[in-house]
Amino acid sequence: xxxxxxxxxxxxxxxxxxxxxxxxxxxxxxxxxxxxxxxxxxxxxxxxxxxxxxxxxxxxxxxxxxxxxxxxxxxxxxxxxxxxxxxxxxxxxxxxxxxxxxxxxxxxxxxxxxxxxxxxxxxxxxxxxxxxxxxxxxxxxxxxxxxxxxxxxxxxxxxxxxxxxxxxxxxxxxxxxxxxxxx
Length: 183
Hints:
Layout: H1 2-6, E1 20-21, E2 25-31, H2 40-44, H3 53-62, H4 71-78, E3 83-87, E4 92-98, H5 111-114, H6 125-136, H7 142-149, H8 153-165, E5 169-172, E6 179-182
Antiparallel strand pairs: 1-2, 2-4, 3-4, 5-6
Helix pairs in contact: 7-8
């Protein structure tokens, strides 16, 4: 979402919507299309045009900074099948991320009904999402888990504590370099 704010016209920033969540995908719709000279293929290769220099400067100083213009590349490293749609007529840029079906989840069943591991009795949907994420990304940091489940730090910590109490996850390493692992 912060990437959407940095790269689109300042006057349109207030129109950026929360992600649209669907059963099979997540869509992020940003107002404004790609500027002249940029194509979907060029942004996949790392090209970027900052159209909000004041906000970009502010974000670089106040948020975790990983390099200006690196968001699309990092997103593609995490999920290579993200689809980007530039719509000049509708003046919008859409990112579509397909959801991956969890292993053990049967079609037409709820997330806890379809998981056949037997450990999910007594855990809720967010805890199940955290376990799925840790299976994909062992050693994840708390902020990465919070981003994935789209919750704040305090809520995420509460769910992590619950999962630790149930002995389903553990934290390994120091506070600075460690991470969470599924047991």
